[in-house]
Design brief:
alpha+beta; elongated
């Protein structure tokens, strides 16, 4: 539903609160007057943009987490979790047993901390702005929705703000485009496994010689992790395999193309069928699996991919994209926000054939979405199931 529909179902108390936020001058006892005044005020671009400009970063992160979801309704528990995920490293100051005497400066600091809204207060704030509404009957009473027309306006307004800070360039003289390579390497993995007796170690990973032989067959060359080096990844055997190889292996295991039979790796019946022909929807399936596998560590992954899809229609510098997107990325253990953006998101999007990566003689690293990548991202939505747990 759009904002006008949701206002029509809202009670006069909520309408009055929304009208107060936007300083509407109208008859507060008339539901119709309240609705018309709110719609008239919110429809003004200057008012809408001023509201967004006044939002704190955690407000923007919370809003951003709602803008690209395929589903229309959110439970209170889901919203509370999203608010928590939108707070990156904010310190909770505990009262001291023997607090020092407050100075004017420390008093101001304490007041600033106290002003941070609780998750429930954040949700109430969004309701008072008319950005979130409860359902109106039955089980939907306990669910929240964002008006569809406001979603579109938020995306368009934020896209303009982000684009203003980006550096667009002409086409670089050289660039990487890995479209179709990941499909070929899935075939290589299955053929090699089918024709060789691949032995597995006690932890289920392949012995080094098999991994090296497979890497030689792959279209994208990677080095094995250095012995004793710190490894961090989002897959089954990431500590033994390079990032892209690990993902290809995980996808084949997830698709039930391969099976770890105690000490041997074997190809299954579906895997043999895949060796004969590639499914027409495989690009979408691989993309969907990547979102599920990575969305646990990268809480705002879906929205970040959509922003790259929106902002990188033309060649744009990685540095300017970093400036815009890094504030929306929460560090995950030893992966800082820059590492997540470049290695976990953009590098993987290149491997998936969604993104081209080039080197511009003046501006350095630049990226641009592929035509197929834009179609995949625009056409595939993340399912409601939870993140994949890899054992």
């Amino acid at each position: 539903m759009n904002l006008s529909d949701m206002l029509g179902y809202a009670d006069i108390q909520q309408l009055s609160r929304i009208a107060d936020v936007y300083r509407c001058e109208c008859n507060g006892h008339s539901k119709n007057d309240l609705i018309q005044s709110i719609l008239s005020t919110v429809s003004r671009n200057d008012v809408f943009e001023a509201q967004i400009s006044s939002m704190k970063m955690e407000d923007l992160r919370f809003l951003n987490s709602l803008l690209f979801e395929a589903r229309n309704s959110f439970s209170l528990e889901d919203l509370l979790a999203r608010v928590q995920h939108s707070r990156f490293g904010e310190e909770i100051i505990k009262p001291e047993l023997n607090p020092p005497k407050k100075t004017k400066r420390s008093k101001k600091k304490t007041e600033a901390v106290e002003k941070q809204l609780s998750p429930r207060e954040m949700i109430a704030k969004f309701k008072h702005h008319g950005w979130l509404f409860n359902g109106f009957s039955g089980p939907s009473r306990y669910l929240f929705q964002v008006p569809n027309d406001l979603k579109t306006r938020f995306r368009d307004t934020l896209a303009k703000r982000f684009a203003a800070d980006l550096q667009y360039t002409d086409e670089p003289p050289i660039y990487r485009d890995e479209q179709m390579l990941i499909h070929d390497d899935i075939t290589h993995l299955l053929h090699y496994t089918y024709h060789n007796e691949i032995q597995l170690t006690a932890d289920g990973s392949m012995y080094k010689r098999f991994t090296l032989q497979l890497l030689d067959r792959f279209g994208v060359q990677e080095e094995l992790p250095a012995k004793g080096a710190w490894r961090f990844g989002y897959g089954r055997h990431f500590n033994q395999y390079p990032n892209r190889f690990s993902f290809v292996y995980d996808y084949c295991y997830h698709a039930k193309y391969i099976n770890e039979n105690q000490t041997l790796l074997t190809v299954t019946g579906p895997g043999e069928e895949r060796m004969k022909s590639r499914p027409s929807s495989e690009a979408e399936q691989i993309y969907r699996y990547w979102l599920k596998l990575y969305k646990g560590p990268i809480t705002h992954l879906l929205s970040l991919v959509h922003w790259i899809n929106t902002l990188a229609v033309e060649w744009v510098t990685v540095e300017s994209l970093r400036t815009v997107l890094v504030p929306f990325i929460k560090p995950y253990f030893y992966d800082d926000a820059n590492t997540i953006l470049e290695q976990r998101i953009m590098a993987m999007m290149v491997h998936l054939g969604l993104l081209r990566l080039g080197e511009h003689p003046i501006y350095g690293a630049v990226v641009r979405m592929t035509k197929a990548g834009r179609a995949v991202v625009a056409g595939v939505s993340l399912e409601e199931s939870g993140p994949i747990v890899v054992h």
